[in-house]
Amino acid sequence: MKEDFFIKIETWHKPDMGTQENVHCLDPNVWKTVEVVHIDIADRSQVEPSDYKADEDPAIFQSFRTKRGPLGPNWKKELANSENCPRMCAYKLVTIKFRWWGLQNKVESFIQKQEKRIFTNFHRQLFCWIDKWIDLTMEDIRRMEDETQKELEAVRVLILFLYCVFHGRFGGEFSAHFVVLEKRTFSVYRHLLRQPPHPFFHLPGVYRALNSYL
Length: 214
Fold this sequence. Notes:
golgi apparatus; 214 residues; mainly alpha; Alpha-D-Glucose-1,6-Bisphosphate, Chain A, domain 4; lipid-binding; 9% strand; acetylation; two-stranded antiparallel sheet; phosphatidylcholine binding
């Protein structure tokens, strides 16, 4: 199963307003198949109602230390016209491979939607948490990157697990094999269930599904 399912996320950070094309230098034929999704962290309509938090809304937040924010509806145009204001766009290329007859398109589409949701919420939080990270050292950042990588791997496994549970695709040898191999990963989420729920866990039935299989 490992060879037939993977998620790869590649990121380029560029000092621009997101106007460059094909920054990952994909083959032209591959680039034609890529769906480009623009994320505006100040646009509340891009946020799921269950994910919204007023204290993580760039449209109303202002940094105490840097005085940045709030971001108005025309913040991108204003930033583009300000030569002295730094800017950075994160270009993220998400590649998904899921080879399972009858489920491939549905699972890939499901994961793409969840990735957009994660990116949107994370970068909204990142802007609103600026007073907490503005003084971080490179060592602090590297440590956080390592922790994040482990969490992302757990999310990769959990997404597939939940999809299979919700669509009745778990059963037989695959179910037993999957749960045994990923027991350590699921243990992380068993612990997280005791904490305030992450937005991802607002999906219907997720608590019941996890408790049934863990």
